[in-house]
Amino acid sequence: METNQTEESRFLDLTSCQLRDLAEIDLSENLEEIDLTANRLSNLDERISRLSHLRKLSLRQNLIDDQAVEPLSHWNEISGLEELVLRDNKLKNIPDMSNFKGLLLFDVSFNEITSLNGLSKVSPTLKELYVSKNEVLKIEELGHFRSLEILELGSNRLKIMENLETLTNLQELWLGRNRIKAINLCGLKCIKKLSLQSNRLTSMLGLQECVALEELYLSHNGIQNMEGLSTLQNLRVLDVSSNKLSSINDIDNLNNLEDLWLNDNQIESLEGMKEAVVGSREKLTTIYLERNPCAKSPNYVATIKMIFPNIQQIDSEIIM
Questions:
Q1: In degrees rounded to 5, what are phi and psi of residue 19?
Q2: Residue 315 pLDDT greater than 70, yes or no
Q3: Residue ranges of domains in the chain, CATH in brackets
Q4: Using an 8 Å Cβ cutoff, are 109 and 87 in contact?
Q5: 97's torsion region: left (phi>0), alpha (psi -120 to 50) or beta?
Q6: Rounded to the nearest 5°, which phi and psi values hold at 215?
Q7: In principle, which of 37, 110, 235, 243 could form an S-S bond with 88, CB 3.0–4.6 Å?
Q8: pLDDT tens digits, residue range 183-236?
Q9: How many CB atoms lie within 10 A of CB 294?
């Protein structure tokens, strides 16, 4: 029983309680984590400012605006906070986070933020930054985040990939649903996951030095040629579906490819497929080619099975 009581005093989960305030809630001084997801909170309870052991605070899906979040900037007793989630609220600006010297995760996605101004005050210890589904126009104020491993800026209004060169430890970069026309990774070579889905790309060039890349998502663009991929020897997942491809190129020596998404393109024939994917014939387990002209050819499934002896899925069909 003592263990359970201790656990309850350290972790408080009030998700989906539809609370408008915390007046009736006991806040133990030993609390390390508070999850207030999916409530109706429009202000922060001042008692939170005295929880010196607090490390994780989630205010996701509430009614918090810029004024409501302002007190955080001078709540010195919770300066040891490591994770702060303000996702899905009513913020219009990046709040002042200078008080938190050891912040590791910061999430302000699904708000109404138009600029990344203010990120320069966020601790350089940050490892994960989420600013998706806002109205951000420019990538900026990221230069000091040399420990950053995950950057999520999807569903904004970005046109240019820029100001990324100092993020030398970045492992994942998510930029889907923007207005980006060209790939520019600013010399970064350690990225393992990259998403540029639903942008305005017409070329794949710009990836050649990303030799650590394991997952690449480029669907829903205007890409006409597969190119600049031959150096990506660690690539396991390649999604170039919903583009304007008419042939499969530049992946013949990718020996680690497991998933290949080519559906919704203009690939006419399966002829030459074996040579085009020779490096991954044994490794590939999933391929999507549906809604290409070649998917209507006689013996389509049988031909794919013959090319890839270890295939487990062709389009939506699981191979037994």
A1: -75, 140
A2: yes
A3: 1-113 (3.80.10.10)
A4: yes
A5: alpha
A6: -135, 130
A7: 110
A8: 999 999 999 999 999 999 999 999 999 999 999 999 999 999 999 999 999 999
A9: 20
